[in-house]
Amino acid sequence: MKDSNRELALAALIEAIDQESVGEFLEELEPEKGVFEIRFENKVKGYANWFWVVTITQPDKRKPATVSEVNLLAGPDALLAPAWVPWAERLAEFKRQLRAEGKAATDAEADAMIANMALSLSDHVEGQESKQDSDNGGMKPPTKTRVRQRRIKRADDNQDQDPESDSE
Are residues 53 and 18 in the same domain? Predict the structure, then answer.
């Protein structure tokens, strides 16, 4: 463990974030030869049991070490977000819950209840015009496109001629 690696890591960390967010030095690891991970305590509110990791590389001992990355990583006791569940699965579970509670007898009734819930939570009012104009994208497509006429240059007489008026 070199003090110069620790000093370089602390300087890089303070350059990247506020000094108040960095706590005490925790440890220095060498996961691979020439790669060092220097860990510092985290003082950011809301991130208890997280720590700062500065990765330093020095593949050649004759050259100075360089900072590769600065990360905030979760510790083993850190509070993490729950696993992501796709919307289709969450919606299916909510429909099953509505049927189990007796609020909806079929999926169609559950869909209608969900649509009513969405409308009651939204401040958007759907009018008649929106249904009528749903096919109108707001812009009409061009009715006629302009085609550039192609001129053919004859090698023998050096005259331009229309391809349509080929009367030879």
Answer: yes
56: buried, middle or exposed (CB in 10 Å: 19+, 13-18, 0-12)?
A: buried
Same domain (yes/no): 20, 65: yes
**For residues 93 and 107, is the Cβ–Cβ distance under 8 A?**
no
Q: What is the CATH number of the domain that holds 48?
A: 3.10.450
One domain, residues 91 and 28: no
C-beta separation of 52 from 22 below 8 A: yes
Domain residue limits at 21 = 3-74
Clarify whether residues 70 and 9 are in a common domain: yes
Per-residue pLDDT of the chain (168 residues; tens, 9 = 90+): 577 889 999 999 999 998 999 999 999 999 999 999 999 999 999 899 999 999 999 988 888 899 999 999 999 999 888 899 998 999 899 999 998 999 888 888 888 888 888 777 766 665 555 555 555 556 666 666 666 666 666 655 555 555 565 555
Where b means 16+ CB within 10 Å and e means fewer, 112-132 reads eeeeeeeeeeeeeeeeeeeee
> What pTM does this model have?
0.52
* Structure-token pair, residue 97: 């819950």
